[in-house]
Amino acid sequence: MFKPLEIFIGLRYTRAKRRNHFISFISFISIAGITLGVTALITVLSVMNGFEKELRERILGVASHMQVSSAANGMSDWQRLNPYLEKYPQIEGMAPFVRGEGMLTAGAGVSGALIRGISPELEPSVSTLDKAMEVGALTDLHAGDFNIILGQELARRLGVRLGEKVTLVTPQASVTPVGVMPRLKRFTVVGIFAAGMYEYDSALALIHMDDAARLFLQPGQVTGVRVKLTDMFEAPYLTQLIVQDLPRGYVVTDWTRQHVNFFRAVKTEKIVMFVILALIVAVAAFNIVSTLVMVVTDKKADIAILRTLGASPGRIMRIFIVQGVVIGAFGTLLGVIGGITLAANVDVIVPAIEQMMGMKFLSPDVYYISELPSEMRWSDVFRISALAFVLCLLATLYPAWRASRTQPAEALRYE
Known about the structure:
By secondary structure, the protein is of the alpha+beta class.
């Protein structure tokens, strides 16, 4: 008795038994459609967030959050960067590196490779390569021993295993009495890593940075310094600060620039998937239109009586808006509960389905990410639930307006 008239009658129409069971069926379909649409949106976006996070961690486990290099072709005094970089608490680790390209040969196997000279002691502070080692360890790289660590696919392509020899041919040439000859150096394979990204596993080779500097004719120099941050998303902002703080002649880049096309493609794919799945919610939401139109037709006599008792067209309109909003809110709530439950248990549900069906959705022989990762973000949940609720609200406006335009005399003529 203390409820406003619109809410009281709207809720009564929602829960009352209707003479027309088809209307009840359409209402159930509307709620089920909204529930499934919201559940699918939350689950799919959570899985895509998980894939994006997994790929980002794998890429940045080998690449760097930030890189400081010299505008010239080498940096002989990289230690002088320490005072400038150490004052930033966001910086977690720093390590010098030497970068070059070459061709690796072993027997009949030949493959181009990206050569990275590293400091075995400092490299774990900026990458996860030490944790990605299949055999061997980064500490097996010693200056002057000319040892090498290969990516898993690169080693497979060359057909080499631990302890075997590979020959590195570099673009730099040596002038000899018989003419210009390419620079060759034999290395011993002391380790194999599997970073989980084909780009790195098939093309990256690690050697000691002192050996790399000698091999690429840069003795005592490094290409630059790789930097790891406590929060990778602060990289663009921190890059601007460091550029202004460093002396002239240094170049600072971050991961958002180095891999901008890849992450832009992932973001575009997420937007497209959101739009496609949102259409499912929209179709379900606009089923409310047909439900309320039939309810309005069924309740014309009630509307006419309310109008003769003094109810304004605005009140009549709000009665049916309440009914549509209740259907939409109930469907959205069920969808949010279902989506959160699925997104939080993807790692349990998917293996159970795979075991039941006797198949693997993401075969490890084909995909490097063989498990479905999931990262539910509350911002996505709020955005999806708000979208579903707004669509449901919009769907109620036309039927409610039609109800408010009902003329009592016309509605009661044949009663």
